[in-house]
């Protein structure tokens, strides 16, 4: 079990989806799929709380009813609560994923192309073992 901030988990969603489209061995693909599903499940409660904060501090836009705007007098309170939510840690069980598992040889792994932002977003998940 690992403790990971809501912010880090949220940042990893898009990176995991992109990683899942890479040509990688099935064993690592399965681990990524399990990690993605686990992270999405873990984010359900914080996303619900975020919506509650929007409802508490905001109001529906008159011109765009699907959009909520934070009332000017509530901006500081909303930011404070959101910051606390994003810094909250969630205890989560994720599969061990090693960088060496992405290809058959270390040379092949080193030739793989990843976006730097994705690697940063997944630093809590992928263990650098090369």
The total domain count is: 1
Largest sheet entry: 2 strands, antiparallel
**What proportion strand?**
5-15%
What's the arrangement of strands in the largest beta sheet?
Answer: 1-4
* Average pLDDT metric: 91
Anisotropy-based shape: elongated
Uncertain segments: none
Count the beta strands.
6
How many helices? The count is: 6
Beginning-to-end CA distance, first to last residue: 23 Å
- Rounded to the nearest angstrom, the radius of gyration is 18 Å
- Helix residue percentage: 40-55%
Can you give keywords for this protein?
single chain, 130 residues, alpha+beta, two-stranded antiparallel ribbon, 6 helices
Short description:
The chain has 130 residues and is an alpha+beta fold.
Write structural notes for this entry.
The chain has 130 residues and is an alpha+beta fold. The chain has one domain. It contains six helices and six strands, in the order βαααββαββααβ. The strands form three sheets. A two-stranded antiparallel ribbon has the order 1-4. Strand 2 (58-60) and strand 3 (68-70) form a beta hairpin. The longest helix has 17 residues, at 26-42. It is elongated. The two termini are 23 Å apart.
